[in-house]
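Sequence in, structure out. Go.
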Amino acid sequence: MNVITRERLQIRPLTRHIGAEIRGVDLKQRPDDETIARIYQSWLDHLVLVFPDQDLSQEDLLRVTGYFGEPGHLDRPAKYHPPGFSRVLPGIMLISNIRENGEPIGALPDGEMMFHHDMIHKEVPSKATLLYSVEIPSSGGNTLFASGYAAYEMLDPAIRSKAEGRQALHHYNYGSTQRGDDRGVAAFNECMHPVFRTHEETGRKAVYVNRLMTVKIDGMDARESDTVLNAIFDHAEKPEFVYEHVWRKGDLLLWDNRCSSHARTDFPAQERRLMLRTTVRGTTRPV
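Output:
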């Protein structure tokens, strides 16, 4: 097996605030420890990493996930482990609109999704998410990533002072919250976390509320909470803070859930979309 060394690694920032493309690495092979450390630091620096042109087995994907921490367990029903995919390796979840007998084989099957942080409705949310493209539609299904750091640092001081030090309630119910119909996947939970989260590795603060799941700021009446939250949402989703990824087959993306949020654009419902998702377990409750 060839060893990938840090000298071959190429890191190209994608926007001013978020995202970098990593080339010179074939993740079917295990990089040396220095290269893994450099990739990890690049992830902390850029929040989102894009590894294009990868050809990964499920075992490869789980091994790569382990470079960033302990792989998480599947957070969806077992029916999303069809043969040949994550029934073999339960740490992998299908994200797909492909249907068998009228039922989607994967989670989060259809349409657009508003900005959100993965697993923010849990006591200890995921540290990271990896998503690998197996089949993609001819257009749409893009993923947008927003820098929580940049949003926090450039937030109106008057809005920031209202929310600083406060907690917010996050509620997850995909069917009712996201779509308002019965096409979603049944899932429910809720939890309180800080409006602004301090990243435990970088020490930087980031916006940690989102339009999809954040319901209310604790200690505010509903009207004030809605006003403050909507101001934060509108600010955090500004194009200047966002990288939009147009998927290609073989792309592997890694993002930091602690300091970035993401959204998905709509795509043709009649075209197949199949992604493999893994997560990295969080190590601490957000503060």
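Check: The chain has one domain: 6-280. DSSP finds six helices and 18 strands in the chain.
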